[in-house]
Amino acid sequence: MAKFGGFGGGSNMQMQNLMRQAQQMQQKALEAQEEIDGTVLEGTSGGGMVTVKIFGNKEVQEVKLQKEVVDPDDVEMLEDMIVAAFNDASQKADKLKEEKLGAFGAIGGLM
Q1: Is position 91 within any domain?
Q2: Structure confidence at residue 96 (pLDDT)
Q3: Using the 8-state DSSP alphabet, how is residue 110 labeled?
Q4: Which residues, including other chains, have CB under 8 Å from residue 21's CB and lie 6 or more apart?
Q5: Within 10 Å of residue 26's Cβ, how many Cβ atoms?
Q6: Residue 111 pLDDT > 50
Q7: How large is the C-alpha radius of gyration of the chain?
Q8: What's the pLDDT at 104?
Q9: CATH number of the domain residue 25 falls in
């Protein structure tokens, strides 16, 4: 019978090292996700007449409207401007997420 046959020797140590590295990467990815979620991003439309602030997880924090943009006879325009400002902020959140988590790939389903 061979003394070092099968999976003995250093392969167990290699597996432990790989597991440790994977856990460290996952922890770093989770920390990056927390940083993203806490970051406030701002989107604007109408030359700054409408501002939407969102967190990195795309939860709306604040909506600001300049008085001049509020026209009771043209609510549709205001609605469109709010959507545009949110989409602007959302694109910035996506870019931030890609910058922070892109190196991690799809670890733990974060991406």
Answers
A1: yes
A2: 95
A3: -
A4: none
A5: 14
A6: no
A7: 24
A8: 76
A9: 3.30.1310.10
Residue 44 lies in a domain: yes
pLDDT tens, position by position, 26-70: 999 999 999 999 999 999 999 999 999 999 999 999 999 999 999
4 lies in some domain: no
6 lies in a domain?
no
Q: 44 lies in which domain range? A: 13-106
Tell me how crowded residue 56 is: count the other CB atoms within 10 A of its CB.
21
What global pTM score does this model have? 0.75
Burial class (CB in 10 A: 0-12, 13-18, 19+), 33: buried
Burial grade of 98 (CB within 10 A; 0-12, 13-18, 19 or more): exposed
Q: From CA 103, how far away is CA 29, in angstroms rounded?
A: 9
Supply the angle between the helices 75-101 and 11-38 in degrees, to the nearest 10: 150
Q: Closest Cα partner for 31 from 40, 20, 39?
A: 39
pLDDT digits (tens, 9 = 90+) for 10-31: 688 999 999 999 999 999 999 9
Please give the tally of structural domains in the chain. Answer: 1
